[in-house]
Amino acid sequence: MKNIAQSENIEDFLDSDYIYVDKTEYIYNLTRNFKRVFFSRPRRFGKSLTLNTIGTLFEKGVDPYFKGTWIYDKWDQMKYPVLHLSFLEYSATDLSEFKRQLCLSIYKFARAQKIQDVLDDKEPNVYISNLFDAMNDGEQLVLLIDEYDRQLTANINNTEFYEKFRICIRDFYGAIKGKKQIKFMAVTGVTRLKDVSIFSVGSDIMDLSYEYAFSNMIGFTRDEIKKFYIDYLRLGVSYENNKSTDKVTDADCEEFIDRMAAHYDSYCFDRKYRNKVFSTYSVNNFLHSIVSDKEVYFGDYWYEVGGLPSILMNYMESHNLNIENLLTSEIEIPYNDFANPTSLIDINENVLMCQTGYLTLKSDLDPNDNVILGAANLEVKSALFRLLSLKVFQKNISPYSTGKNYVLEQGSVEDIISLFNEVLAALSYDKYPVDNESVLRALLQVYLIGKNHDVQVEQHNSRGRSDILVNFPKRRVVLELKYTDINSEEQKKLEDAEQQIIEKRYGFENLGDRELIQIACVFNGGKDKRQITLYKKVEK
């Protein structure tokens, strides 16, 4: 059984016997049909490996690293030197140091390639122009730029620094535009911004971020997981069902992938809304854990690398996200906001959430219609609400009673209400005041989803919608919430909530053999209360 990759360098795949999910047909078509390309993806989605693969093909050819891949007997390009610039390696806090580091990378490349008489300069745009001027007639290079927007995203809340870096990066791209010395160029990043000239009118770079033909180039498809990771799928099924891997059927593997998909699939980078991919980082970590832990556990790996990105955390320092909007399964935004974000300073928050991987396409891209976004899967939804919890709540409130048992799963009604009051007491009331039932419901849902509870946010039955419904294997908890800031109204509100639960039979749909706990409760939003003051377990 081959090892799961722990590297973004294609040469390590051969040396360490790593699984390589063959994406070389996409790369062949990319390099054949375009001269300069850009594609955006969230962090740790495979952008760097893609660039490294392109660079290796141009610089070293197919032997020995691409034996057995689609491209092996088809690649016939000449070899070219590769200038690979990773903006992750450069300063995001000191513009002068950023310039020095970028110029140094160009200098080292020129020296390695023995390109003589490159005039020195402290400005990257001038320095790379001098490099081109010093190259011989007909001499060409391949230019790869990874995470081009690193310095911009790091300064989303610092207008002065953002503008200085923006101008520097804009001028750099202006200097490489149309240069005949560039055989091929590929640029990656998280964001797609018009204010750095890379995508502005007249740019010669093709933005392929949502092109149908390349929408599966980065990320794993279901068929790719079945083909390249079949041994790991069988191992997972064997641990879960206590049977040998040779007894695992194709149907077993399909069911296993179905559950993987619920957690890690459905990112869409396809303007036609047809192709969807799994998170490469999450899949690799999940399957690797099966081997190391000898059991199956669907962990939330996205949060480890995407949960606290500087882009979103910095943005949230100066912006309050629309929590009620994020709780819905579909968020509509104008097409132009999605297709043409100008600057990180004034970007539509939902576009930013999409570019960082917290939302994804849920519709095709039609210039005559709105774009629909939503959470891709359970893992990223949990990561999103863990992130929001850091903003909304002033301290962490444990969801457990004893050991690792959820309060809602095994606690009494009194325990559940006590937990909710502790959560509500931790709110940042100045930023997120609770002044109606809708806000109350949304904030409790943020907490529960962020703690990995199976919360049915839009759980409807034929008679209406319950406020909060949480599922566990052996229990279902339903809450009907009422709000008041007048003490004398509390009892009437509680009676209304109880009657609503009884009449609308909340929680009975598809209940199975679960225990059903129905709770009517009243939150008093008065400044001297701000807690659930009355509650009652509804007897069936």
Account of the protein in words:
By secondary structure, the chain is α/β, with parallel strands linked by helices. The chain has four domains: 3-214, Rossmann fold, CATH 3.40.50; 222-299, no CATH class; 305-380, no CATH class; 393-538, Trna Endonuclease, Chain: A, domain 1 (3-Layer(aba) Sandwich). The chain has helices at 10-15, 24-33, 47-60, 95-112, 124-134, 150-153, 159-176, 222-228, 230-241, 250-264, 280-293, 302-306, 310-318, 323-327, 335-339, 349-355, 378-392, 407-410, 413-425, 437-450, 490-504, and strands at residues 36-40, 82-86, 141-146, 182-189, 206-207, 331-333, 360-361, 371-374, 454-455, 460-461, 464-465, 468-471, 475-484, 515-524, 531-537. The strands form four sheets. A five-stranded parallel β-sheet has the order 2-3-4-1-5, with helices on both faces. α5 (124-134) packs parallel to α7 and α9 (230-241) crosses α10. It is globular and about 85 Å long. The termini are far apart. The mean pLDDT is 91. It holds the Pfam family AAA-ATPase_like.
Quick structural overview:
This protein is an alpha/beta fold and about 550 residues long. The protein has helices at about 10-15, 25-35, 45-60, 95-110, 125-135, 150-155, 160-175, 220-230, 230-240, 250-265, 280-295, 300-305, 310-320, 325, 335-340, 350-355, 380-390, 405-410, 415-425, 435-450, 490-505; strands at about 35-40, 80-85, 140-145, 180-190, 205, 330-335, 360, 370-375, 455, 460, 465, 470, 475-485, 515-525, 530-535. It has 4 domains: about 5-215, Rossmann fold; about 220-300, no CATH class; about 305-380, no CATH class; about 395-540, Trna Endonuclease, Chain: A, domain 1, CATH 3.40.1350.
